């Protein structure tokens, strides 16, 4: 009876060792395949054409907007300069008229 139990335990131990060995072999195979796949992915060229085209479009649009903004700012500066000159002339005429007595302050 004891030998039957011992034989049964030894058979289970042998089966467990075989299952562990099979599991280790499968795990090693899976890890190797994963490494190979990750190397392929790392070495692969990424398709950046779409990204580069979109980037160029964004840069072009930003440049055009900047040009419009600069032209608008230049126009505003010219308008301010023109109106400042006119106001200075008006103030000068007003001061002269006050000085010569044509107008009261």
Secondary-structure-based class equals mainly alpha
Summarize model confidence as the mean pLDDT.
85
**Biggest sheet: strands, sense, closure?**
none
Number of strands: 0
**Amino-to-carboxy terminus distance:** 132 Å
* Helix share, percent: over 70%
- Number of DSSP helical runs: 2
User: DSSP strand (E) fraction?
Assistant: under 5%
**Poorly predicted spans:** none
Structurally, the number of domains stands at 2
User: What spatial form do the alpha-carbon principal axes imply?
Assistant: rod-shaped
Estimated radius of gyration: 44 Å
User: What sequence of helices (H) and strands (E) makes up the elements?
Assistant: HH
Give me a quick take on this structure:
The protein has 105 residues and is mainly α. It has helices spanning 2-43, 49-99.
Quickly list its features.
single chain; 105 residues; mainly alpha; 2 helices; rod-shaped
Summarize the structure in words:
- The structure is a single chain.
- With 105 residues, the protein is mostly helical.
- It has 2 domains: 1-44; 46-105.
- Helix content is 89%, strand content 0%.
- The termini are far apart.
